[in-house]
Amino acid sequence: MQLACSSRYSRLLATLTLFCLVLASHAFAKENPSYTQIGRNINIGPDEQVSEVTCIGCSIYIRGQVSGDATAVAGSIFIEDQGQVAGEVTTVAGNIRLDKDVKIAGDTTVVGGELRRAAGAQIAGDVTSVGGAAWVPFLLISPFLFLGLLLTLLLWVVHRIRRPVVPVAVA
Question: Between vectors from CA 58 to CA 55 and to CA 59, what angle results, nearest 5°?
């Protein structure tokens, strides 16, 4: 009887804990929403606070506060007018422009673009810049090249296994 009561108590405790976590994450999401856009720019106003910002094929304009990361793929990130990012700022195939009096607490990474930074801009983390548009075709083509080589190897192995064995004539 004690084992059944303990099991029932454990399930009740697990359910209650899960409910509290879902409720807490929902309440936090209302205070600091996350934005994810594809092909449509994101604008964070001076009085706005968001948690995460992700943009694919578009640009991000930050004048307010981002408590997490700001990421753009095939787009640029512009941090202006005392904008702040508490996490990392990353762009692939795009640029990052930092006006004076902006603050980034995490790392800043630019791949296939340029980092333009005003004199008063502060970056607390590491700065990595693999600049130039020459990297973009390599980044886009390399996965297909790898898959093509893998497929060629696979076809060669299958062809080698399926080749019939011809007996050697002894004279």
Answer: 85
Mean pLDDT of the chain: 82
Does residue 152 form part of some domain?
no
Judged against a pLDDT cut of 70, whether residue 155 lies above it is answered with yes
Which domain range does residue 3 map to?
Answer: 1-30
In this structure, are 46 and 102 located in the same domain? yes
Tokens of 146: 């790898």
Residue 94 and residue 72 in contact, taking contact as beta carbons nearer than 8 Å: yes
Q: Which band of pLDDT confidence, cut at 50, 70 and 90, is reported for residue 104? A: very high
- pLDDT above 80: residue 170: no
Is 10 among the domain residues?
A: yes
Could you tell me the strand order of the sheet in which 65-66 lies?
49-50, 65-66, 84-85, 103-104, 122-123
Counted domains in the chain: 2
Token digits of residue 141 = 């083509």
